[in-house]
Specification:
This protein is elongated. It has two domains: 5-59; 84-271, Vaccinia Virus protein VP39 (Rossmann fold, 3-Layer(aba) Sandwich), CATH 3.40.50.150. Helix 1 (5-11) crosses helix 2 and helix 6 (91-100) runs parallel beside helix 7. It has helices spanning 5-11, 16-27, 31-36, 44-58, 63-67, 91-100, 118-126, 139-151, 211-219, 239-248; strands at residues 69-72, 75-78, 108-112, 131-136, 157-161, 173-178, 224-233, 252-258, 264-271. The chain is built from ten helices and nine strands. Strand 4, helix 8 (139-151) and strand 5 form a beta-alpha-beta unit. The protein has 274 residues and is of the alpha/beta class. Bound molecules: S-adenosylmethionine. Residues 84, 86, 90, 113-116, 118-119, 135-138, 141, 163-164, 179-181, 201-202, 212 line the site of S-adenosylmethionine (SAM).
Amino acid sequence: MLPTIAQALAAVRFDAVDVRVLLRHACGVDDAYLIAHADDKLSAEHSAAFAALVARRAAGEPVAYIVGTREFFSLEFKVTPAVLIPRPETELLVEFALESIDVERACSVLDLGTGSGCIAISIAKNCPGAKVVAIEQSAAALAIARENAALHATVNLELIASDWYSALGGRRFDVIVANPPYVAAGDPHLSEGDLPAEPVAALVAGDDGLDCIRAIVQAAPRYLNPDGWLAIEHGYDQAERCRELLRAAGFHEVFSREDLAGIERISGGQWRAS
Ligand SMILES: C[S@@+](CC[C@H](N)C(=O)[O-])C[C@H]1O[C@@H](n2cnc3c(N)ncnc32)[C@H](O)[C@@H]1O
């Protein structure tokens, strides 16, 4: 016998949000429809489609890769296994950039390791006066970022293939943001949650997880305008070491900010030419 929408949702023991996302995708409807039609029976076609999606999730495939999208900063982004799945805590970097941008003048922003483009596109859409540049080393990821930029008709964004700053020549920016790989090789978290399905190059950064952060912080002064800001996302236990790296590189006003879980999640500082 075919289940109702409410029965189908209750029968699957995954995270409740994930189950709703899968059922919405299988039926091609939105959340309001699921609520309004909770007692409607699923069609045989939708029931089979939902069962197939649930089987993929049960086999370890992340929900975002199954449905092909993830919301970030209230925008929908295309995601594939070529890119990291955007995380809610990364919105802190966007908030920081939007606060740091001087809207009175044409401000320039650089996003390092843009992946899906979620940070750069969110900044560009929320601050049309800013000139945003985003770089990425992975050609496959850069192609997804380009698709997302087109999807959101982002005109004030330039996407560049680059190994960190290498393709930027002498360009300087008012704000640099980065969510680089920061997991230590061999960290047991790599086998948990969605991480086994995500690109290793988006996650792992050397034996202590700080290789990319070190490279980004040390070179940042050559790419920042005077009084420009750098902010970097890092692991739950890396804030203190990031602050040390920032101070050692000559940054002022060094800070860390907590995410909604109370974990220090981004650190940064201001560059002053002296
Ligand atoms: C943690 S993911 C972040 C993706 C996206 N910014 C986000 O927040 O969802 C790190 C990104 O940095 C890219 N990356 C890794 N090494 C790089 C390098 N040397 N130069 C440029 N990008 C790099 C990876 O391909 C990946 O897309």
